[in-house]
Amino acid sequence: MSAIESVLHEQRTFPPPESMAAAAAVSGMSGYQALVAEAHRDYEGFWARLARENLTWHTPFAKVLDESNAPFYTWFADGELNASYNCLDRHVEAGHGERTAIIFEADDGKVTHVSYADLLQRVGRFANALRKLGIERGDRVVIYMPMSIEGVVAMQACARIGATHSVVFGGFSSKSLNERLVDIGACALITADEQMRGGRALPLKSIADEALAMGGCEAVTDVIVYRRTGGKVDWHPGRDRWMHEIAETQASDCMPEWVSAEHPLFILYTSGSTGKPKGVQHSTGGYLLWAAQTMKWTFDWKPSDVFWCTADIGWVTGHSYITYGPLAIGATQVVFEGVPTYPDAGRFWKMIADHRVSVFYTAPTAIRSLIKAAESNAEVHPDRYDLSSLRILGTVGEPINPQAWMWYRKHVGGERCPVIDTWWQTETGGHMIAPLPGAIPAVPGSCTLPLPGILAAVVDETGQDVENGQGGILVIKRPWPAMARTIWDDPERFRTSYFPQELGGRLYLAGDGAVRDKDSAYFTIMGRIDDVLNVSGHRLGTMEIESALVAHELVAEAAVVGRPDDTTGEAVVAFVMLKHACPVGDEAARIARELRDWVGKEIGPIAKPKEIRFGDNLPKTRSGKIMRRLLRSIAKGEAVSQDTSTLENPGILEQLSTLAQ
Ligand code: WTA
């Protein structure tokens, strides 16, 4: 709670710079309030206006919102459009074909510019190649690729032919990839030979081969491979094809598939409270509308801007603020293959200077690690670089501590750029709560106020509003166009996870705790209230990691909790009981290493526990429930002050308190 208290006592406010407010899409508090009032007066009319303004419709919609099958809401359902047409063709048709769409910088520093006209041709060729393979509207295609122009092309090409893509982050293991291929019933997989990160080539194709060999995904008849490094790969004739070979023989003109606004554009897996990741399904129309509109509102995009979102296309931020949002509005953006610390921790700052980036969007975990690097090596301090092109800074993924916020503002933003802390989720499609740069005074550590049309609130366990100043559960009170439509193949889980009966069945439950300031009504996010950890901005379910641990032959039982971490926000701590006696000394260290690698293989390196503690048992209630709150205290190194009278085996606490690795 101490982080929240420090924000609550935060007195510093940073009003928008006057010149920015004057020229902003949403200008001043009055501009913001006018939009809020418009949505309040005529909710459907407000969204219909934005949908008409932001998107080009092949068939205009007549119906706006349909609530008859709540919580499976639909928006603009009788309207037809194509996401790729909206991201590419219409800009070229409007005479902006020569405008740079993507400035791609490779891991080794090589820069490639791609214009809108080029990108349209590349997408057209590849979309035709996918069609030739028999891939059609509604088919699911999994994309397991590095950050690349080709990754964006693959996503856009799927959208063009009405295939639903599901991008799996390149850091996930073969097991995780297999689970997703099976769950979604994919018919094709697009991958690369290898990916380059930090000067090293990492295999992707061989992991994909392993995933396919695990079985259950026999429906995958085509594996399309982008040749990134030319490294050696195994080849399965008849199944495997090079991306460039199948695309180069195709025409660049490709008729877009016109789909209903409700057609699933993509499914993206994310962690929830149970062991199985959820396939969050998004629509075409409502989703794209918000990706475009938030580019204009939250980032106040201007045609002269160079936008850079450092996220990976494997996460929702890379969907909304690389592949769809920036292209939908015809922006010029930087796409980066590598990591912020290679060849040194000045890479981000150098790239901002080289490409004259004006709007920069990154994660608190990156900021914190770059602060550390800058403090120990003056050479990579942002003060050393010409960052004068910047005008707006954004953050996303986890709460940003006021100290990091202030550093970001001062050393990266030169005290002139607003810092926009954007709260949102995979399920929300785009930004939900954020200080609009020309309108809302920012406060370090607070994401401030909901975007116009978004009815965010803080409620208690029964769904009643709590007073400002009191903590509670963050909810959204009305459906919005960009919200997830369902969980793939599990609508019941969608209903129970996001619209629980306890809250009345109509409120969208975000899974975060929040508090609003007594005076300003600003929101501060207090972190997850369910069994989800946030490690470096990545969502990990504790249950997923636990099931991975118990799948190891030595492990009898495991419990995973988070503890605060200076760099990664939260760190994974695992409490493990082995089938044989509790290990000590070197043996404990060896088994801990083995289990860590095991989790890396089962899920991916991001899920590896930072600490593993062994015990003869886990603290349980008499009814056999693991007492996680005790484990959380132990993980933090706190003295256990909670009531332990219901504990079956109190002696265990002491053993678990000693770090066994
Ligand atoms: C957390 C990422 C505080 C939150 C877009 C949310 C944040 C989860 C912020 C979603 C923020 C994201 N301040 N917390 N600005 N942004 N979160 O689905 O716990 O990967 O529920 O989407 O990240 O993570 P997801």
Automatic annotation (TrEMBL):
Cross-referenced PROSITE patterns: AMP_BINDING
Enzyme Commission number, as recorded: 6.2.1.1
InterPro entries in the cross-refs: Ac_CoA_lig, ACAS_N, AMP-bd_C, AMP-bd_C_sf, AMP-binding_CS, AMP-dep_synth/lig_dom, ANL_N_sf
Reaction it catalyzes: acetate + ATP + CoA = acetyl-CoA + AMP + diphosphate
GO molecular function list: acetate-CoA ligase activity; AMP binding; ATP binding; metal ion binding
The AMP-dependent synthetase/ligase domain, residue ranges: 94-483
UniProt function note: Catalyzes the conversion of acetate into acetyl-CoA (AcCoA), an essential intermediate at the junction of anabolic and catabolic pathways. AcsA undergoes a two-step reaction. In the first half reaction, AcsA combines acetate with ATP to form acetyl-adenylate (AcAMP) intermediate. In the second half reaction, it can then transfer the acetyl group from AcAMP to the sulfhydryl group of CoA, forming the product AcCoA.
Chain ranges of the Acetyl-coenzyme A synthetase N-terminal domain: 32-87
Domain of life where this protein originates: Bacteria
Cofactor(s) needed for function: Mg(2+)
Binding locations of Mg(2+): 550, 552, 555
Taxon lineage: Bacteria, Pseudomonadati, Pseudomonadota, Betaproteobacteria, Burkholderiales
Keyword annotations: Acetylation, ATP-binding, Ligase, Magnesium, Metal-binding, Nucleotide-binding
Domain AMP-binding enzyme C-terminal: 544-625
Entry PTM: Acetylated. Deacetylation by the SIR2-homolog deacetylase activates the enzyme.
Modified residue annotations for N6-acetyllysine: 625
Binding residues annotated for CoA, in chain numbering: 197-200, 317, 536
Keyword match Ligase: yes
UniProt cross-references to Pfam families, sorted A to Z: ACAS_N (PF16177), AMP-binding (PF00501), AMP-binding_C (PF13193)
Signal peptide: none
Protein name: Acetyl-coenzyme A synthetase
Residue sites binding ATP per the record: 397-399, 421-426, 512, 528, 539
One annotated Gene Ontology cellular component of this protein: cytosol
GO biological process, one term: acetyl-CoA biosynthetic process from acetate
Primary enzyme class: ligase
